[in-house]
Amino acid sequence: MNDFRFVFDLVIDVNGTDNIFWIFYVMNLILAAIAYELGFARKLPLGKTIFVYVMLMVGTFILTIFTTVMRMPTIESLLVIIVVLAIYRIRLHMQRKANTIEK
Question: Which of 39, 75, 80, 86 could form a disulfide with 7 if both were Cys (CB 3.0 to 4.6 A apart)?
Protein backbone atom coordinates (compact mmCIF):
# COMPACT_ATOMS: atom_id res chain seq x y z
CA MET A 1 0.00 0.00 0.00
CA ASN A 2 1.41 3.41 -0.99
CA ASP A 3 -0.24 5.39 1.82
CA PHE A 4 -1.54 8.02 -0.64
CA ARG A 5 1.97 9.16 -1.64
CA PHE A 6 1.46 8.80 -5.38
CA VAL A 7 3.11 12.16 -6.21
CA PHE A 8 6.13 11.34 -4.05
CA ASP A 9 6.54 7.96 -5.70
CA LEU A 10 6.08 9.41 -9.19
CA VAL A 11 8.69 12.14 -8.65
CA ILE A 12 11.17 9.62 -7.24
CA ASP A 13 10.61 7.29 -10.22
CA VAL A 14 11.06 10.09 -12.78
CA ASN A 15 13.89 12.11 -11.18
CA GLY A 16 15.59 9.74 -8.79
CA THR A 17 16.85 11.19 -5.53
CA ASP A 18 19.02 13.97 -6.99
CA ASN A 19 17.80 17.38 -5.78
CA ILE A 20 14.65 15.77 -4.46
CA PHE A 21 14.34 18.27 -1.59
CA TRP A 22 14.38 21.28 -3.93
CA ILE A 23 11.93 19.67 -6.35
CA PHE A 24 9.47 19.12 -3.53
CA TYR A 25 10.19 22.57 -2.09
CA VAL A 26 9.21 24.24 -5.35
CA MET A 27 6.12 22.04 -5.72
CA ASN A 28 5.04 22.73 -2.13
CA LEU A 29 5.69 26.46 -2.52
CA ILE A 30 3.61 26.75 -5.68
CA LEU A 31 0.74 24.74 -4.23
CA ALA A 32 0.85 26.62 -0.91
CA ALA A 33 0.80 29.96 -2.73
CA ILE A 34 -2.22 28.85 -4.77
CA ALA A 35 -4.00 27.67 -1.62
CA TYR A 36 -3.20 30.96 0.10
CA GLU A 37 -4.53 32.99 -2.83
CA LEU A 38 -7.72 30.93 -3.08
CA GLY A 39 -8.57 30.91 0.59
CA PHE A 40 -6.87 33.58 2.60
CA ALA A 41 -5.40 36.39 0.49
CA ARG A 42 -6.55 39.94 1.14
CA LYS A 43 -5.52 43.16 -0.53
CA LEU A 44 -2.43 44.19 1.44
CA PRO A 45 0.21 46.87 1.00
CA LEU A 46 3.35 45.75 -0.83
CA GLY A 47 5.51 45.44 2.31
CA LYS A 48 2.99 43.23 4.07
CA THR A 49 2.50 41.12 0.96
CA ILE A 50 6.25 40.54 0.70
CA PHE A 51 6.36 39.62 4.41
CA VAL A 52 3.50 37.14 3.98
CA TYR A 53 5.23 35.44 1.06
CA VAL A 54 8.58 35.31 2.86
CA MET A 55 6.86 33.62 5.79
CA LEU A 56 5.14 31.29 3.33
CA MET A 57 8.56 30.37 1.95
CA VAL A 58 9.89 29.65 5.46
CA GLY A 59 6.82 27.56 6.32
CA THR A 60 7.10 25.68 3.05
CA PHE A 61 10.71 24.83 3.87
CA ILE A 62 9.50 23.18 7.08
CA LEU A 63 6.63 21.50 5.21
CA THR A 64 9.10 20.08 2.69
CA ILE A 65 11.02 18.42 5.50
CA PHE A 66 7.83 16.53 6.37
CA THR A 67 7.45 15.59 2.70
CA THR A 68 10.96 14.31 2.09
CA VAL A 69 12.20 13.02 5.43
CA MET A 70 9.00 11.74 7.02
CA ARG A 71 7.37 10.94 3.65
CA MET A 72 4.04 12.50 4.55
CA PRO A 73 1.58 13.15 1.71
CA THR A 74 1.75 16.95 1.92
CA ILE A 75 1.55 17.57 -1.81
CA GLU A 76 -1.52 15.39 -2.09
CA SER A 77 -3.05 17.22 0.87
CA LEU A 78 -2.35 20.59 -0.74
CA LEU A 79 -3.99 19.37 -3.96
CA VAL A 80 -7.13 18.41 -2.03
CA ILE A 81 -7.11 21.77 -0.25
CA ILE A 82 -6.84 23.60 -3.59
CA VAL A 83 -9.74 21.62 -5.08
CA VAL A 84 -11.98 22.31 -2.08
CA LEU A 85 -11.12 26.02 -2.02
CA ALA A 86 -11.65 26.30 -5.78
CA ILE A 87 -15.09 24.70 -5.48
CA TYR A 88 -15.91 27.08 -2.63
CA ARG A 89 -14.78 30.14 -4.64
CA ILE A 90 -16.76 29.07 -7.72
CA ARG A 91 -19.93 28.50 -5.70
CA LEU A 92 -19.45 31.82 -3.90
CA HIS A 93 -19.03 33.60 -7.23
CA MET A 94 -22.14 31.93 -8.64
CA GLN A 95 -24.17 32.83 -5.54
CA ARG A 96 -23.05 36.47 -5.66
CA LYS A 97 -23.84 36.61 -9.36
CA ALA A 98 -27.33 35.20 -8.74
CA ASN A 99 -27.93 37.72 -5.93
CA THR A 100 -26.87 40.58 -8.20
CA ILE A 101 -29.27 39.48 -10.93
CA GLU A 102 -32.19 39.24 -8.45
CA LYS A 103 -31.71 42.80 -7.22
Answer: 75
Which residues make Cβ contacts (< 8 Å) with residue 23, sequence separation at least 6? 11, 15
Measure the CA angle with vertex 48, ends 21 and 44; round to 5°.
115
Q: How far does the chain reach from its first CA to its final CA, in angstroms? A: 54
d(CA 45, CA 78): 26
Mean pLDDT, 10 residues at a time, over the chain (103 residues)? Answer: 68 79 92 93 91 96 88 88 95 89 75
Helices (H), ranges, 1-103: 6-15, 20-39, 46-68, 74-102
